[in-house]
Design a protein that fits this description.
Length: about 220
């Protein structure tokens, strides 16, 4: 399966989200990564329902919504209603993770689980076969433009092995510090989805940046 590039809206110009979403719409990237932060789980606040709802009509690309919020359960259906296709919650934020995953599926979305850099991939073992996506944080969540944590390569290798032993087909998504400098190696080691914020929207030409991450030309 070819890897998926998911430009992250967090690094776009918030005064012109229309252009940012249209740019992704016209690009080869199949997903748009959308970071929701609550100022509690992470030390930052981004945006929520009204923004997602406003950009939903602009594209048919997959809305890959990454919740960096505590207590996500009451918000599962509302995120579906504004157009999320994938809903990813943090393992560290869910007391009853399996129940949360079931609720995401019942709402008709793909279920993802994200883990922070300090969380062992083995903590996912008993839920891996039930989920569609693992989001490995390769920076500490909360901000775009941070430096990639090299230990992530080790975590991908262990997750690929764990996926095999658990019979899971969850996609492995890498989130944070992804650029041309590491994209090729990430995919070679086993990444299925590359989230890219700063390396796309901070580039001189975001279209060229998406094309480069898509073809791993860098
Ligand atoms: C960070 C977010 C990321 C962020 C990545 O907490 O989860 O999705 O947008 O940004 P870059 O690619 O700039 O590290
Ligand atoms: Zn994210």
């Amino acid at each position: 399966m070819p890897h998926i590039v998911a430009p992250s809206l967090l690094s776009a110009d918030f005064a012109d989200l229309n252009s940012a979403v249209r740019l992704v719409d016209e690009s080869p990237a199949p997903w748009l990564h959308i970071d929701v932060m609550d100022g509690v789980f992470v030390p930052n606040i981004s945006f929520g329902f009204p923004v997602i709802k406003a950009i939903r009509p602009l594209t048919k690309k997959v809305f890959d919504v990454h919740l960096m919020i505590v207590r996500p359960d009451p918000y599962i259906n509302p995120f579906r209603d504004v157009g999320a296709d994938n809903l990813t919650v943090h393992l560290e934020a869910c007391t009853h993770l399996h129940r949360t995953v079931q609720a995401i599926h019942s709402a008709g979305m793909k279920a993802g689980v994200a883990i922070n850099p300090h969380t062992r991939v083995e903590a996912l073992e008993d839920v891996l076969a039930d989920i569609d996506l693992v989001c490995l944080m390769s920076v500490n969540p909360g901000f775009g433009g941070q430096r990639f944590i090299e230990h992530t390569f080790n975590k991908i290798e262990r997750l690929v092995a764990l996926r095999k032993t658990t019979g899971s087909s969850a996609l492995i998504e890498i989130d944070g510090g992804v650029s041309d400098a590491n994209a090729k190696t990430l995919v070679a080691v086993g990444a299925d989805v590359l989230v890219a914020g700063n390396s796309v929207f901070g580039a001189k030409d975001p279209k060229v940046a998406i094309a480069s991450l898509s073809t791993l030309a860098g």
